[in-house]
Amino acid sequence: MKALYPEKRLVNASMGARVVAELRMRIITKAIQDETVLTENQLAKEFQVSRSPIREALRTLTSENLVRPERMGVVVVGISEKDIEEIYDIRLMVESFVFERLLHKDNDKLVGELEKLIEMMKIAVKYKDIDEFSFLDLEFHETIIRSINHRYISMLWSNIKPVMECLILLSMRYRLEENDKDFERVIANHELILESIANKDTNLINQAFHKNFNDVQNKVEQLWSNEEMMKIARESIESK
Amino acid sequence: MKALYPEKRLVNASMGARVVAELRMRIITKAIQDETVLTENQLAKEFQVSRSPIREALRTLTSENLVRPERMGVVVVGISEKDIEEIYDIRLMVESFVFERLLHKDNDKLVGELEKLIEMMKIAVKYKDIDEFSFLDLEFHETIIRSINHRYISMLWSNIKPVMECLILLSMRYRLEENDKDFERVIANHELILESIANKDTNLINQAFHKNFNDVQNKVEQLWSNEEMMKIARESIESK
DNA sequence: AGGTGAATACTTGTATACAAGTATCCTAAC
DNA sequence: GTTAGGATACTTGTATACAAGTATTCACCT
Lengths: 240, 240
Hints:
The structure is a homodimer.
Chain A: H1 15-28, E1 37-38, H2 40-47, H3 51-63, E2 67-69, E3 74-76, H4 81-102, H5 108-126, H6 130-146, H7 151-178, H8 182-199, H9 202-224, H10 227-238
Antiparallel strand pairs in A: 1-3, 2-3
Helix pairs in contact in A: 1-3, 1-7, 2-3, 4-7, 4-9, 5-6, 5-8, 6-7, 7-9, 7-10, 8-9
Chain A binds a DNA duplex through helix 3.
């Protein structure tokens, strides 16, 4: 099976990290079906590594709630449409908290960084580097979140980030097949968020969040609700 | 050094789990100072186990933000008063979200469970079993959170829970030394929360949350702000 | 036939060995 | 005295070995 997660992001990564990234993608795309039982030995054989990195990977996936430990081995939990909604509950909760804090700060430096990221996103679209575009999207949000220097908010973010990353990656790949005008709209959404922050405009941020979230969430759910589409998303990378 | 974490909670636990529990307590009580560099070999020697469980422990502590990985070994981050405030930001955020959901549900079963927990807390106070009281306190909150069946909210909770557990454990032990009338007030706070849920009373829950949070947070911070008090909390268990 | 129990082939948790890389320290040259 | 360079003693990441425990299977007994 071809790797689902971009190799580019794994240079210098340990085998453990590679296994996590790959398993996560397979679980989320249902290339590994829910309820499948995974054991360390079996995975070690399949990935041609020892049990040590596999153990590490399974622990990470457990903490991300993608698998649940049972008496012997772990069983794949995967994610459903309901889970995706729930992830976006968390995002909305976290990002709203962050915006509230931004209102009482000077955000010039942040605004500058966000402008840079938007420019880079435009370049990524221009050259159809969808994976890069996805990572920039995520980094945009992470930059905002980190800017308030709230250790535990950052921690929350880092807990849901890996799954978010997969979701965005997949939904963007799918869009590319489907309708690449969508990328313009994604960029416009981010420009709206940027403007809200620059002007500390509470009404605008609510609009922006809901626009952005509904947009991404709908796309992701659309993707998940249709087995055929999921297959396209999986294969869009495998065929590369 | 005597164990800081109750042995009772570690029956059947793996060495890895024990090491995590113990290191977490030592870091939070500053028995291990911030900025200390910990390496796997050194800890393996100290705890008389191999590197495998130590590795596992350090990974867990990293995910909890109590240590941060560096090129060689991990360095202890620990928690400050600001961090404690931030943890309570998260709690307030999460528990408010949960209460909002509770308003649209039938909570009879939940209310029953909470009543049971409060009774048990009273017994724990009667027999001065402070560690048990602390765990019941935490379980009270966890029961509420789990009741809305929100996978990612539960995940967030499980990420901050271990540190919360230590904080509550320490603050309760300290109270016992200081003024054991406090326990009555903690119970009263929980009864207030219970009542808010039973009656779906939005105003009351805000009062209850703020009362409970301010109470615990103040106690904890009071504890942290004074080196001498921290020593008392540490030793209150060591002398057992 | 149905249930019991022992043998077997799994599983995880832990210890240990090894390779590759990095900081440190000591020596030597200037 | 100061700096360069190499030996040394660390570090982590990974592989492998072993012990203890659990599911399964299959034969045997009732």
